[in-house]
Amino acid sequence: MSYTLTYSESAKGWTSFYSFKPEIMIGMNNRFYSFYRGNLYIHNSNNVERNKFYGEKYKSTITGVINDSPSEVKTFKTISLESTAPWSCTVTSDLGSGYIDKNWFTLKEGDYYAHIRRNSNDSVLEMRSLQGIGTVSSVDSSVPASTVITFSFKPDSMISSGDKMYVSTGGSVAIVGTITSTSGNDITVDASSGTIPSPSNFVMYMKNPIAESYGTTGYYLEYHLELPVDSSNVFVEIFGIGSSLFKSYP
Fold first, then answer.
1. Beta carbons within 8 Å of 42's beta carbon, 6+ residues apart
2. Mean pLDDT of the 84-92 span
3. CATH annotation of 130-206
4. Could you tell me if 116 and 215 are in contact, meaning their C-beta atoms sit under 8 angstroms apart?
5. Which tens digits make up the pLDDT trace of 200-236?
6. The CA-based dihedral angle spanning residues 146, 151, 153, 155, taken in that order and rounded to the nearest 10 degrees
7. Rounded to whole angstroms, how far apart are CA atoms 193 and 202?
8. Distance of alpha carbon 247 from alpha carbon 170, whole angstroms
9. Domain locations along the chain
């Protein structure tokens, strides 16, 4: 990705990055002008849509880092926005990643709060969300898309539709499929593209990453806020970004 980097003679330094790429740019009489493909443009005008440069609309984005106690591994649970509107948010650390849909933010006392969710395709088995169910008693796999796995006990009530089931076989762990329902001692799984367990195999489950809010662990957290192109003409202010975090104890 390329940027336009500006230098200020008065400040004697490089002052800013711009995502648009003009051919020539100049400030004059307290106005900012640029040329692009032979046409003259005036910037910061109220006569055009926000985030529209040379006829093309852009997203509003903000990227930053939260790095309190940089020598400690931390768990980042939430993102808070001192803003007039919620933003979509993706987060990345040295040990994980996650995201927040802008519709998940809740307005509390003037600020927007939301818990960080794991990515929908996240299947890191070391996560705390991977929990054991128990040893399989019998399996009815006559219909792979509705494989019924029976136990000699009633499984954990926390297991629900949308969770993933895994099976331990020969020292390795393989995906069985997505849990579609639970009833008594039975769990029904869509195992059409997974490994169907055998009686005496030990199985586990991982909660739906969107439904849980374990947050993201790491030494630091890089966040990326974004407003979609279709809302780029809406006036939005943001004053501060924060996170609820605590020291992680492995």
1. 31, 32, 33
2. 94
3. 2.40.30.270
4. yes
5. 999 999 887 666 667 888 999 999 999 876 665 678 8
6. -50
7. 19
8. 36
9. 4-57, 60-121+213-247, 130-206
